[in-house]
Amino acid sequence: MKNKFAAIDVGTTKVCTIIADNSGVAGFRVLGVGISPSQGMHKGIVVNVDEAKESIRDSVRKAEQVAGCKIESACVGVTGRHINSVNTQGAIAITRHDQLVRTDDLKRVLEVAHSVKMPNERKLLHVIPRTYKVDGQEGVKNPVGMHGFRLDVETHVITAAITSIQNLTKCIRSVGVEVEDLILEPLASAEAVLTDEERQDGVMMADIGGGTTDIAVYKDNNIYYTSVLPVAGYQVTRDISIGLGLSFELAEEMKKRYGNLALDTSSTSEVDRTLTEDGHSISYSKLSEIIQIRMEELLRLMIMELPRTEYSKLIPSGLVLTGGGANLPGIAEFAESALRLPVRVGTPMRLDGVSDVLLNPAYATGVGILLWQATGKNKQDLHAVRENTVRRFVSRIFRLFR
Description:
Dna Ligase, domain 1, single chain, 13 helices, five-stranded mixed beta sheet, alpha/beta, six-stranded mixed beta sheet
């Protein structure tokens, strides 16, 4: 796997494995993609280890077959309601005679920023520096080489339930793949679909998956807020199933085939249309009404997650929707009408290699995990750097003995 890297997105409805190397226009070229239905997962959390393990094994095997190589390690996406995030601050004194800020000072101030006592059941995922201050001067992006007596930092600290992380990593390792890094999924999805202008001005990204809706808010080109909602495509399908008296599987099929948030109520023939599937006849208008009600509720929940009530000032660039749920026709226009904000659907950019299948909002997280590695974002994360060093050492020793 020299000069190659892999990403695994273990979702509630699918597992996506991507293998790439470090050539290509975007810094990498996709060599293989493996997509399999997900089993044993619920709202981003492993609920059946054996089923989840087999889904991951099938996805990895498919990607390896296309790429023509085996993967030894991969970066893995993490989500679930157990995720917590908070912005913290830290400050240190620069006591050297020359008063010059060095790399060691950055590490030290980041240590101070996340030195709050953490419960034993929580695991630190990310410590991401948002902005620095040198002697009170704000807006410093990189203080190394500057002179000052005091260095302040504001960080975005993300933690997860350690048992959920252990169950996920156990499933990955059981198929012969070492977990090189763990990345919060909304951070990864944002890498794949947001523009630099949106990050600077202020934007909310919402990845609507099968079991969770992952949220990331950016402002002034910094991560401002992250959250995971336990409401997503599953709830829409469940409402259709209950409301129309269909099995969950048939309700999912009807949603994918006929779901449309841009129903033209002025067209009587369209509203009164009857849909027939597997011997079941349902009203097209009733199906659309259920989807609209649930999606409007989800959109309201997204906005309620924002830490400020004046959301139009916080996110003037509006909302970017991605994930499998963003494939519903008319969702951008529907969301704009409901929220009075600019809304667009975020699709990952075209990549070199065998990547045609990835040109879909459903694969934003997988592509984002690759971009997170390719752009070196993990190198800016104090915790990830340490974890990766330990993991590589242990993995190397393990392979030698094996």
